[in-house]
Specification:
The chain is an alpha+beta fold and about 400 residues long. The strands form three sheets. It has a five-stranded antiparallel beta sheet with strand order 2-1-5-4-3. A five-stranded mixed beta sheet has the order 7-9-10-12-11. A hairpin with a 4-residue loop joins strand 1 and strand 2. Helix 6 packs antiparallel against helix 7, helix 8 packs parallel to helix 9 and helix 9 packs antiparallel against helix 11. The chain binds adenosine-5'-triphosphate and magnesium ion.
């Protein structure tokens, strides 16, 4: 009797011990499951829910009792219901990985989720159910969408700035053109009034008057042609043009629009045919000359040296000013977008950035800056003699 009693006590102790171990294991599993941020559902082979974790309860806003023993499809919404209904069948063959589904959120809204579903086997290796885990896509999607929006806004802003830089150059040029048109037009008018007064005695003095009017009209027409070339630069097309004439034109035009017209020294061939994008070269020159003139703002007598050199396969346009030059630490940054040392409203810092892009990408050339040993900054625009097809 004593032995039986002793055995009973022994079993009792062992049982309690086992129970403790079991409870500990249970507690361990519970703590792991509730620490997971991914949602988890364990279902039997018919798709009946056996267990869910805390993340799942938080997402659905339900209590465990409301979900247990129910069909897994009640967790889903929309087309996903039909897809999930087939999980018990599909998971027999292989695990289902990374498919997108919509779960029913606490607020009744669909929550997009990336889910995986694996088969679960019992201790005898017999298929006994499935385990579904899922991760919310919403956060990732939202972050991605915000990034895309921000990128788009940046692109729009950049495009706008590039456009306004072009408009600013155009504005300066148009001011110069208006100034230039004033003179010839006034003497065309003057001559015409004189002609009117002489109406009756036209034979006398008529020759010089007509010549003068014609000359004035021709000057107006040249100016208008120059203006048109600038306003509608030949962006896509490439053609043969006289680089010397283009340089002289661009430099003179910009120089004339400034308060103190700089002295201009040209050293270039009489004529220099180049094949390429005339409009782009024009815009680069305008930007460089404008910068040079800005740099000499405080000089009583600004001076610009323009040197065009023909090399075997390319040409170089050197534009040197007599301003303060570019500080060493800025030389690396002047071609960066938005780099400017000018006050707000005066410079956008896009002139050289755009010019560099045009020189290298559109014209197949190069643009560089140095400080001249005898003072002032020197920019060198290098262009191939012949760029693009020679269709024109
Ligand atoms: N000839 C120069 N002499 C001295 N510094 C220059 C010269 N050219 C350019 N820089 C410097 O490089 C900077 C960038 O020139 P960039 O043409 O890109 O912009 P910006 O002239 O400041 O403004 P924007 O051309 O957009 O009106 C200038 O702010 C200036 O500091
Ligand atoms: Mg500039």
């Amino acid at each position: 009797m004593d032995t039986i009693y002793a055995d009973l006590v022994h079993y009792q102790v062992e049982l309690e011990h086992k129970n403790e171990e079991l409870e500990e294991a249970q507690h361990f599993i519970d703590s792991v499951l509730s620490a997971m941020s991914d949602v988890l559902v364990v279902a039997d082979i018919n798709g009946r829910i056996q267990r869910v974790n805390q993340a799942m309860l938080d997402m659905t806003g339900k209590r465990a009792e409301e979900l247990l023993e129910r069909d897994i499809t009640i967790l889903f919404t929309g087309d996903s219901v039909n897809m999930v209904r087939e999980f018990p069948q599909r998971v027999r063959d292989h695990a289902i990985t990374d498919c997108e589904a919509e779960m029913l959120g606490a607020d009744g809204e669909a929550v997009p989720i990336a889910i995986n579903c694996s088969p679960r086997y019992d201790s005898n290796g017999v298929l006994s159910g499935m385990v579904i885990t899922g991760r919310q896509l919403g956060e990732l999607r939202r972050a991605y969408r915000e990034l895309q929006d921000a990128h788009q806004r940046l692109k729009d802003a950049q495009r706008q700035l590039v456009q306004s830089e072009k408009m600013a150059s155009l504005g300066r040029l148009v001011a110069g053109v208006a100034h230039e048109l004033n003179n010839p037009i006034s003497f065309v008018f003057g001559n015409m009034h004189a002609l009117k007064r002489y109406e009756g005695r036209l034979l006398k003095d008529i020759g010089p008057l007509i010549d003068g009017s014609l000359e004035g009209a021709e000057r107006v027409s040249t100016i208008v042609q120059n203006l048109r070339r600038f306003a509608t630069p030949n962006h896509q097309g490439q053609n043969w043009f006289d680089l010397s004439r283009l340089v002289e034109n661009a430099v003179t035009w910009v120089a004339k629009t400034t308060r103190t017209t700089p002295e201009l020294y040209f050293d270039m061939p009489e004529e220099l045919p180049v094949h390429g994008s005339e409009g782009h070269v024009h815009q680069i020159l305008i930007n460089l000359v404008q910068n040079a003139i800005d740099a000499m703002e405080d000089l009583p007598q600004p001076r610009l040296d323009i040197h065009v050199i023909r090399q075997p396969n390319r040409v170089e346009v050197h534009i040197r000013d007599h301003g303060p030059g570019i500080p060493e630490e800025h030389l690396l940054h002047i071609f960066d977008p938005f780099f400017t040392t000018k006050e707000i409203g005066k410079g956008t810092g896009l002139g050289l950035y755009i010019s560099y892009g045009l020189a290298t990408e559109q014209c197949g050339g190069d643009l560089s800056a140095t400080n001249h040993p005898e003072g002032g900054a020197e920019f060198v625009l290098s262009l191939p003699l012949e760029h693009g097809g020679t269709s024109t």
